[in-house]
User: Which sequence fits this backbone?
């Protein structure tokens, strides 16, 4: 990874946090720097998005109000290998609206598929590039509540959100990242641990191509695979 040479201290910290424990049938996640931001509730209503940062204290109210005027549920992801189209489920409104919010903020552009395991999942939404870390800081630090009981399973093509790697007994979701189940018969052992909030409706052959590329010892692709653009299509 080229960025590791330039940003070696940042990269080593990130890689260490990604290793975690467990086998390749588990979902791993990274940590990110604590941010101390005080936001008044009325600012969520009155101020433009760029005037405040999201926190655990304001995220639910923000997404509740954001969801009212942002009903989009179809997104196209442009990768180095081709395009993946996904449908976001209406009955997981916080996860759907969070994803739409991040798309509109152009957060995903320049992030990578940073964990790839053939016949399991491809995981995206992060990078060893410090500019991605800066994007997170500008948006804020927050987690999303789990939403397991909406009738969705980790079938092939499912879009799901990893839990935070922090001390997290309630399995709160890390909002900046997502993974796509590539395994042919699904990964139902993940049900009840991670929130499925959408599915691939076009481009599973691209998911398969990404899943088949060579990776290093921590499942990071030998040749970086970037998300070049994400756009809302409906």
Assistant:
């Amino acid at each position: 990874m080229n960025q590791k040479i330039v940003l070696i201290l940042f990269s080593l910290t990130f890689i260490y946090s990604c290793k975690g424990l467990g086998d390749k049938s588990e979902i791993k996640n990274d940590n990110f720097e604590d941010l101390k931001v005080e936001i008044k509730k009325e600012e969520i209503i009155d101020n433009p998005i760029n005037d405040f940062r999201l926190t655990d204290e304001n995220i639910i109210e923000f997404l509740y109000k954001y969801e009212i005027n942002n009903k989009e549920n179809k997104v196209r992801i442009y990768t180095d290998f081709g395009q993946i189209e996904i449908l976001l489920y209406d009955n997981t409104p916080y996860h759907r609206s969070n994803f739409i919010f991040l798309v509109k903020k152009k957060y995903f552009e320049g992030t990578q598929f940073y964990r790839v395991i053939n016949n399991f999942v491809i995981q995206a939404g992060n990078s060893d590039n410090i500019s991605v870390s800066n994007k997170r800081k500008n948006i804020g630090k927050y987690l999303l509540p789990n939403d397991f009981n909406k009738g969705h399973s980790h079938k092939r093509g499912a879009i799901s959100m990893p839990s935070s790697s922090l001390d997290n007994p309630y399995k709160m979701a890390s909002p900046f990242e997502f993974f796509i189940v590539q395994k042919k018969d699904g990964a139902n052992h993940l049900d009840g641990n991670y929130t499925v909030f959408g599915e691939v409706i076009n481009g599973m052959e691209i998911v398969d191509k990404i899943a088949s590329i060579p990776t290093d010892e921590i499942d990071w692709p030998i040749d970086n695979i970037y998300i070049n653009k994400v756009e809302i299509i409906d």
